[in-house]
Structure formats: structure tokens, C-alpha cells
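Please check this.
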Amino acid sequence: MLSVVSSRCVYGGVAETSIYVHSGYHGHGVGSALLSSLVPLNEKLGFWTLQAEIFRLCLCSTRQ
């Protein structure tokens, strides 16, 4: 999923991204594969920065 961060022209190449992987697939490289595919796609779409938030209290968002 991609969302434009701001309508201001200075942020024209910045997108916010989020990837959700079902708990049954955690640790199988699914998130890494999705992110690896997302980066070249964003470059083709004219984005030069991907922004994401990871909350440290959400253990499923971090590698254990």
C-alpha cells in the first residue's frame, strides 16, 4: 500500500508505505520479498523516499 505523504511539492517524491503479513507467514521472508518488490516499483512511479512507522510496542512489527 502506498500513500502520498503531502500535497506540498517538496514532498512530491515521498510515499508512506505499509506492509501487513498474516501471522501464519511470519518468519518466512514474505515481508522482505514484498518490500524488495516495492522499492523498484516506487522508483518507476517517481518516488525517491519510502516512509514507514514501526511501533516498538507492536512486537509483530519487529524481528525477534
Remarks:
- The chain has a mean pLDDT of 82.
